[in-house]
Structures are given as structure tokens and as C-alpha cells.
């Protein structure tokens, strides 16, 4: 795994064309190796902007913390 920190929010389209939000949490073990936990949110969105707004409102996301797939 890369030592480059992951952005905590991933916005991607699923197989049905809905936009989904994944919240990622990075922790480090005793050897300073990153351990990433990804949680796909149940909500679906029509646009990436709607997913960003949801992340900002509910998770305190800031600009620059989003990745797109």
C-alpha cells in the first residue's frame, strides 16, 4: 500500500448509474503502516455535487478531501 494519504471521501458511480459516497478512515499500526477502513454510505445521489453537500453537512468534509472514481 502507498504511503500517500488517501482522501477521506470517495465519490463513485455504481453499476446502476447512481452516485455513491464512501467514507474512508486511515489509522496507522505500531510499524506506522496505514490501515484503511472504507464504509459505503447507504444513500444514493443524483450528482457528485449532491454527494459532496451531504458529506459536508453530515461528516464535516472540506474542499480537497474528495476523490472521484
Structural summary, described in words:
Helices cover 17% and strands 43% of the residues. With 69 residues, the chain is of the alpha+beta class. It has one domain (9-68): Nuclear Transport Factor 2, Chain: A. A 4-stranded mixed beta sheet has the order 3-2-1-4.
Keyword list:
69 residues; alpha+beta; Nuclear Transport Factor 2, Chain: A; 4-stranded mixed β-sheet; 1 helix; 43% strand
The CATH architecture name reads Roll
Distance between the termini: 18 Å
The helix tally amounts to 1
How many distinct domains?
A: 1
Biggest sheet descriptor: 4 strands, mixed
What is the quaternary state of this protein?
single chain
* CATH topology (fold) name: Nuclear Transport Factor 2, Chain: A
Q: What's the CATH class label?
A: Alpha Beta
Secondary-structure map with pairings?
Layout: E1 9-13, E2 19-28, E3 34-45, H1 48-59, E4 66-68
Parallel strand pairs: 1-4
Antiparallel strand pairs: 1-2, 2-3
Could you give a quick summary of the protein structure above?
The chain is an alpha+beta fold.
Amino acid at each position: 500500500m502507498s504511503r500517500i494519504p488517501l482522501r477521506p471521501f470517495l465519490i463513485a458511480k455504481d453499476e446502476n448509474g447512481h452516485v455513491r459516497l464512501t467514507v474512508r478512515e486511515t489509522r496507522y499500526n505500531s510499524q506506522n503502516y496505514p490501515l484503511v477502513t472504507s464504509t459505503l454510505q447507504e444513500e444514493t445521489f443524483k450528482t457528485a455535487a449532491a454527494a459532496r453537500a451531504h458529506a459536508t453537512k453530515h461528516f464535516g468534509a472540506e474542499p480537497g478531501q474528495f476523490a472521484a472514481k
